[in-house]
Please model this.
Amino acid sequence: MRSRELVIVGGGPAGLAAALAAHEHGIRDILLLERDQCLGGILNQCIHPGFGLHYFKETLTGPEYAERFIQRVLAIPEIEISLRSFAVKLDSKKTLTYLTPGKLETLSARAVIMATGCRERTREMIHIPGTRPAGIFPAGLAQKMINLEGWLPGREIVIVGSGDIGLIMARRLTLEGARVKAVIEIQKESRGLVRNVTQCLEDFNIPLYLRHRIVKIHGRNRVEKIEAAEVNDELLEIPGSRFEMACDTLLVSVGLIPENELIEMAGAEIDPATNTPKTESLNHTSIPGLFTCGNAFKIYDLADGVTKDSLLAGQQAAEFIRSAS
Amino acid sequence: MKTYDVCIIGGGVTGAAIARELSRYRVSIALLEKEAELAFGVSKSNSGIIHPGTQNPPDSLKGRLCVQGNRLIRSLARELGVHFVEVGELIVISDLQDLPQLQAIKADAEKLGVPGLRIVDRAWLAEHEPNLSPDIPAALFAPTAGIISPYRLVYDLAENAARNGVEFFTGHPVMGITRVETGFVLQTPQRNFHTRFVINAAGLFADEISRLIGVDDFTITPRLGEEYLLDKKREFTTHHLIFPLPTPESKGILIIKTSDGNPMIGPTARSTTDKTDLATTDEGLRKVLQNVQQLVPCLHERDIIAYFAGLRPAAGDDFIIRHEGRAPGFINVVGIQSPGLTAAPAIACMVAGLLKKAGLTLHRKWFFHGRRPASVHLFAIPFSQTEKLIQKDPAYGDIVCRCEMVSSKEIRDAIRRGAKTLDGVKFRTRAQAGRCHGGFCTTRIMKILMDELHLPVMAVSKRGPGSELILGSRDHA
Amino acid sequence: MNKLMTCIECPKGCRLTLEPDGSHVLRVSGHKCPKGELYAKQEFENPLRILTTSVLAEGLTLKMIPVKTSQPIPKAKLLEAMEQIRRIKVQCPVNLGEVIQANFGNFGVDLVATRSAQKPKVS
Model:
């Protein structure tokens, strides 16, 4: 079994920053595993502006923000990048197994940084009753379809949840010629940034229904309509407030969950309510030398925040490796 | 026009099992399914339990076929390479006062010939099922209960039947039946099928099919059941199938182990008149959670990753399997609700017997290819085996579905074996069935479907025509 | 009559109060940086937005190339601009920052690639 000083899982903003910082702090044997065919992670589909204001003091789109880090990482020969590489197993001794076309590789690392990002909460997690037809998409999946594939997932859209991805998709779908009929949010306020409410909804006169929830999805093969209702302080449906809205598509943007299944498999303590590692300090897990950063550690509002804290993760891993040797 | 010996209407587990059984013989067989793929009707919401035969009246047809089926499914699963695990079942009581009821279930089941039954006490339960509520004082243990993937059983039965000459026609709804001198003509929108014998295994729609030849003495009254699937992480929360005491309407709300690892909780039971009603409800969720938490208190709402509703095609209390004397050559196989999956292999044998009695000559083929190589599922094999597979075919190392660890090779194989839709890929491989619900892999699977089946993106569907995912594309602007 | 708006220059989203005088802005308050004041005036007089979207590519490593306008264009013209976007098909490799179309849609701005796309390597 081969051994490596540092293995980083994930080539998005968190993994890239961690790799750069670990190198800067003296680590000369770094393996970066990325499951996709290119680096950049979810930033590649975030083609809207608003990235980099804190870190670069200018506004960039997701791909531009990613590219700055990708170029720096590619220029460092001591960072080995393995694309289309999918980590499947991790244990408490930091033995890691990954698959890549043509190879299953197991290696041991002195430190591991999991920069595995997050997944979207689904319609199932918020228990929207009704049928299960085609036309229900997590907002991020719809974003990928439109921005990376040029596919339009619907024409008459209702969005549930006012997280930033949902708001940005309201604008994106409108620009693509779809009609966004409503954004429905159960809380009293939008969960996304206020500027996204302004530039994604108000700019296009898209109504935001606060304190509403979807109570039923209709349609056998494809979404046909939804029923929504107003909710009270206990978030329960107010009788008599139900109304219907015809649509062919429901986008679900109800939050993100850190992806920490491998860390859990390794035996690190996980808080089941948030799916984040139970720890006192940033980027740490209950297993020494096993770090997690970026959206896997906690959900960030901005990519700049991911970069800042993930740079620290690289440094922390470097210090751990040095102190353990 | 070709005249078939037998046309089977309905491509669920019943139809597929009959097709495979009859494919042993020198007869020509067609199976007609109205949905885009097999197992898209009643069978897709099956919980995958192979029942031991308990909870059936001792004189019932379904009880007899269930016990037989439980025996037959073991060799069938081996031949087809489908994973069957005998996990055993516990029917639990919350009060020792209910012990006589358990004993009555035991006595009834023993009359049917269910082997190995015994009443177990609190100490046994504490040792073998530690997450079970300590308030449960005793249970009836049925060791022969097991689990299987209901979809994969259907697909593998069908694949093996096709290997032995059965012709499958999906997307072919039977709209009319005419009796002719040589037998029957079945009308579908695409073409007519001439056949000597008809087997009606049309599930929820079996009453409508039967009425086409004038037999209308039964009605299918669907009973809706909501099921909730839990994260794979909870696979070993329980080690057996856990049942409460049955009620007059159903076997109750269960904690089910599945062969994919995800535990399932449910089902509810509600009568409906709408055969397309597959909606889940807030009440259903609350009821399921409340009931299972009484049995296993550590189960939590946030463990739920998916839910669905299915319809049981009930026609009274028992199965109806008979040759219709009023329409010679027409065999009804209807009302196949629970334990239909378990009973399917036995039903198939019984139907072969009915056909023989009705005048069909059944000669065994010289070469019956009864075995098929097991499909590969990376999630079910050790890494040492995965490593060898990847060396043989690099595409096994190309992971598409990250939650369930499904490779592009498995997805391409599933499509080459008959999957045409995203649900078809999901049921065969589990890709999109995990905790992210296809958030990450849907576009990749769509592209593989487009590539394998030469489809434009706007023709890729969830479950057949009308359920296309994409409504516009820049390339088609 | 004062007018309220939310600044979209950065994620802070300051609530701005404008005191207009006809078609001009007399005074802006509520901003935490100078960008807010400029934004308010511009937004009141002629609201502008940078358009970010993607254009179809053919025979390149990306199927869709993300793009942006080099300068903001009138907010009211965004949907019109998208009509033009849908007609574009890129066949030549582009680098990040490279102009895909100069004077895009006669808005006096360029359409710029925000990601590089190459010819796929022949294997």
